[in-house]
Specification:
Elements: H1 3-12, H2 17-28, H3 37-48, H4 51-68, H5 76-82, H6 89-98, H7 103-115, H8 119-125, H9 134-152
Length: 166
Amino acid sequence: MTEQHMIQLLNKRGVTLEQIAEIVWKLQRPYNDKLTVEQCAESVLAVLGKREVQYTLYTGIALDELAERKLLPEPLQAILDADEPLYGVDETLALGIVHVYGMIGLTSFGYLDKDKPGVIRELNDNRAAVHVFLDDLVAGLAAAASARIAHQNEAAPDYTSRSGPE
């Protein structure tokens, strides 16, 4: 499995690397005025390179595709057809991606899950296809890529060189 294979899988479901990178850029731009969308795309690719992320994407996308073809057992099929708000398994699966980069990824995911910017909203609102899992997985990818950038931000304050309270 490669990052490019994962990009193809996402493209097949209507999501591009650029759309995810744009969300990452919007999350991190206030903290890094030199950040480019290209750097954000590189960060998304780095996240996509992790096998645990790939497995999570495969699982969620497969469940969405099975739901579209009405191949899930009841009551699961009805739950996904309705995109039942209390289901929560879609968010739980996406958290597997988010936790790769720590707490900042978690807070970013919460924001993205509530605000649903860009392609996340498009997936959530598209009733022609089932994206119960994919909208959250994309939010998880963007949150993890954003957290990865935050961890690498050399302009961030370095508190390790300071002694304790004076």
